[in-house]
Specification:
Elements lengths: L2 H6 L1 H17 L5 H9 L5 H9 L7 H5 L3 H33 L9 E4 L3 H5 L3 H12 L8 E4 L4 H12 L1
Parallel strand pairs: 1-2
Length: 167
């Protein structure tokens, strides 16, 4: 797997948060109770992180169960926001580069159609909004392009099937 994918993929996001929380714990960033609870966590899924983002006090998911102090909740939310923001910037920059390279989408009548796959994009709280905000910032001013985001379920599979049929 490439480093880029590990920074933006839902399959790695929980592990990335887990590693970051454990590192912060070892540097005494959290209260003692939260520190020991986080260090005792064996893993953290992207779903656990999403449950925490959606409602940190609900007690759903591993992170919500171990981070209960108000200051630690705020700190964890800041950490996740930084990691999400980094991933959103990377995804948006990558997509914007592709759109600019194609030199398409210069008029609203002929926008570039973008399909995005991935659990993080569709399921992680506010992640899609962050990506699309950065994307529109990148493609503004003299780089203005018109795009339409469209969900196509299993688009890679559908694309591969169409390619096989065409050939």
């Amino acid at each position: 797997m490439s480093t880029f994918e590990k920074m933006i993929s839902g399959g790695y996001f929980g592990n990335l948060c887990h590693f970051t929380f454990q590192t912060a714990s070892k540097e005494n960033y959290f209260t003692p109770g939260t520190t020991s609870a986080i260090l005792a966590l064996n893993e953290l899924s992207s779903e656990d992180v999403n449950l925490f983002l959606t409602n940190p006090l609900a007690g759903k998911g591993a992170l919500s169960l171990v981070v209960t102090e108000k200051t630690d909740i705020e700190s964890c939310l800041k950490i996740v926001d930084c990691l999400m923001n980094r991933a959103a910037v990377l995804v948006a920059a990558n997509l914007a580069a592709v759109v600019l390279r194609t030199n398409k989408g210069k008029t609203p009548e002929h926008p570039v159609l973008l399909t995005v796959e991935g659990s993080l994009y569709y399921k992680l709280h506010n992640f899609r909004t962050q990506i699309e905000r950065y994307f529109r910032e990148y493609l503004s001013g003299e780089r203005k392009r018109y795009v339409e985001f469209k969900e196509v379920r299993h688009s890679s599979l559908v694309g591969a099937a169409l390619a096989a049929l065409i050939n």
